[in-house]
Amino acid sequence: MFAVVAAASAFVGPREGTLLWRATPRHSLSTSVMHMHAGVLTRREFAASLMGMAVMPALLPVEVLAESTLVTRQQAYSRYVPRIERGRDYWSTGLKKAIASGDWGTIKTALEKKGSIDRIFGPMELWASSYSSKTISPKTLEMNAAIDELREAAADLQAAASGTEAGGGMFSFITGPKKMDESKRITLANAAYTKGVSAINTYIDLGNDGLGMQFTQLDTID
User: Fold this and answer.
1) How far is it, in rounded angstroms, from Cα 222 to Cα 204?
2) Which of 79, 86, 144, 73 is nearest to 118 (CA)?
3) Which among 222, 168, 169, 163 is positioned nearest to 187, based on CA atoms?
4) Model's pTM, two decimal places?
5) Average pLDDT value for residue range 122-130
């Protein structure tokens, strides 16, 4: 508020930066409450000037606001998209190879915190959020839904990599978790891989939609 008053005072008043209030004598209030002498603002005029300054941001050209939005999107794209592409590439190559060879240790490592698979989720969430402002946009919600589907695929991969099934019966605390046979692990892992490909491709298609010529569209997994 002080900044607004100071800004207003720079344009009025007999001395730069000074606002003077001048009221008529008490006996003349019946005809005029406040009046303006040369270089002096009345209360009404001062309030009107503040209101005019308050609405100035709303009158900014649309181009200025659009440019600000574009800069924000450029920053998000530069920061998060390369990391998303690295995660996509690992899913389509490194993970696929590990499943084919039954390399469960490599898959477990990729699923750990900061692993090759785990590292994709943060950037995906942040890039999706860049399409929202004060309220969450439908596009962000759809991209988040694709991320949830990818998380489900990662959970299935985790189960396959661990080689144990959930539950195990009422005596599982004695016998331990039920082990999953190798063929079942491979089948579960392949299904998780396919589900993950679908989730990643859906996410990328949503991100590419309306991306603009300023950006390079992301490739999906074949």
Assistant:
1) 12
2) 86
3) 163
4) 0.68
5) 96
